[in-house]
Design goal:
With 135 residues, the chain is α+β, with helices and mostly antiparallel strands. It is 32% helix and 11% strand.
């Protein structure tokens, strides 16, 4: 009944009492399209982020697990499994054009930039601290 009311609001001529078979067929068709749309959305996410982007590991989502570990004073794992870092699709900490920081490590005046030279021009060459010193 609710489907028939919502379909009537959208301009589809469907009456539950007058044509129950037609309404049932329209509902099945609608659910099939919604299911296909969900499959397409899932395939896009898996293609872009991998399987982890859709399901996710519970420990990564909540930031906690029930695994027991003991650490030495230096931070090395003594008991338990070592922590495996999640793989990223992108390279991390890649320094280009003589920079010693990554793009986006500096923010000023609604612009991102490099922290090392405070340059807000992406892929610019780093001149180091000389750009920050007053003349």
């Amino acid at each position: 009944q609710l489907f028939a009311w919502e379909a009537a609001e959208r301009g589809v001529d469907v009456h539950m009492e007058g044509e129950p078979t037609r309404t049932a067929m329209a509902l099945r068709e609608f659910e099939g399209r919604a299911g296909r749309a969900e499959e397409v959305r899932r395939e896009r996410i898996v293609g872009k982020y991998g399987e982890l982007g859709v399901e996710g590991e519970r420990g990564l989502l909540l930031g906690q697990t029930e695994e027991y570990r003991e650490y030495s004073r230096s931070g090395a794992v003594i008991k338990g499994r070592d922590v495996v870092k999640a793989k990223s699709r992108y390279e991390e900490d890649v320094y280009v054009n003589n920079h010693s920081s990554v793009w986006g490590s500096y923010w000023t005046g609604c612009l991102w930039g490099y922290r090392c030279c405070r340059s807000t021009v992406r892929n610019s060459y780093c001149v180091g601290g000389s750009a920050m010193e007053p003349e």
